[in-house]
Design brief:
globular; Alpha-Beta Plaits; alpha/beta; 14 helices; four-stranded antiparallel β-sheet
């Protein structure tokens, strides 16, 4: 167990699906460092990210290759504006948000994080173009029911299918071939669940991503990894790690491993976190907290920090 020695505050960074028009604009237009992060992300991605997300190019905003660097840029610009007085005890990120956590903890330098998320977004986008796949949330069903559906659909189609995201106890996401996901959605309806196809371009966090994962892993070997200044809790194993080599090995598996988010929140709770601050666009993770922390004794609180106005409210946050 990693003890939360510095306080009871955990900072979490969102992943894809948290994008919104204008995200990060107010911070970047009032902070030179924040503007430089956007400029770096645009240079490394080769895309006009501020034009896409600030002006609201709806089609481009859904593309993985643009979402990933933009979302991480927003999280990092907000993170560097958080008051130093906040006793942050733990960090975590949902899927690509984990890269923002690595930068915040000092495991990777910001330019290296931007390089990796630009590459990751491009590889995942290209993989989706070359091999069809999809993802769907199966709501109102517990883990055992969803696992049964996955096993049945995979066996029936002989295609790749897995649970890709454990977002909350009743919000799980499946990922795989189009045929297998379609069958899983039909089976979910039969069990009175509510299937929702996700607007993504591929079967993320599944074996379909093995080839891009190998290329990304090779790129990870070329950057310097450091011991985190704040414990980081990882999606792959829902626990904290401090050894740089083990952190790199975990991240090299991340693209083809499930996002164990509800389990990660549970581990953070067990390690003493009682206040969660979501740093990034929208409040997707904050909304999940009431499901992931339902029934916990002793009290907890969750905050969403996605703008300059929200940053001003941090004076009310206590660890």
């Amino acid at each position: 167990m990693v003890e939360a020695q510095r306080g009871t505050i955990g900072v979490v960074f969102p992943g894809q699906g948290s994008q919104e028009t204008g995200m990060g604009r107010d911070v970047a237009e009032n902070d030179r460092y924040a503007s430089e992060i956007w400029e770096l992300a645009e240079k490394r991605s080769g895309a006009p990210l501020r034009e896409i997300f600030w002006e609201g190019d709806r089609e481009a905003m859904t593309e993985t290759r643009y979402q990933q660097p933009a979302l991480v840029a927003v999280s990092l610009t907000l993170w560097q504006r958080l008051p130093s007085r906040l006793p942050v005890a733990a960090l975590a990120g949902h899927s690509v948000g984990e890269y923002a956590a690595l930068a915040a903890a000092g495991v990777l330098a910001v330019p290296d994080v931007i390089d990796l998320v630009c590459l990751r977004g491009r590889l995942m986008f290209e993989a989706g173009q070359s091999r069809a796949g999809k993802m769907a949330a199966l709501l109102k069903l517990d883990q055992s029911a969803v696992q049964e559906i996955v096993d049945e659909a995979a066996a029936s189609t002989a295609e790749e299918l897995c649970i890709a995201n454990y977002n909350t106890p009743a919000q799980l996401v499946v990922s795989g071939s189009e045929e297998a996901v379609d069958l899983a959605m039909a089976k979910a309806k039969e069990r009175r669940g509510r299937p929702v196809q996700l607007p993504v371009s591929g079967a993320f966090h599944s074996k379909i991503m093995e080839e891009p994962a190998r290329e990304l892993a090779a790129a990870m070997d070329s950057v310097d990894w450091h011991r985190p200044g704040i414990p980081v809790y990882f999606n792959v194993n829902a626990s904290a790690e401090t050894d740089p080599d083990r952190i790199k090995a975990i991240m090299q598996r991340q693209m083809i491993s499930p996002v164990k988010w509800s389990q990660t929140v549970e581990t953070m709770w067990q390690d003493g976190v009682r206040t969660w601050i979501e740093v990034g666009s929208k409040d997707v993770l904050t909304k999940m907290m009431r499901y992931n922390l339902a029934g916990k004794d002793g009290g907890w609180q969750a905050w969403s920090i996605g703008s300059l106005e929200a940053l001003e409210q941090t004076a009310d946050i206590s660890g």
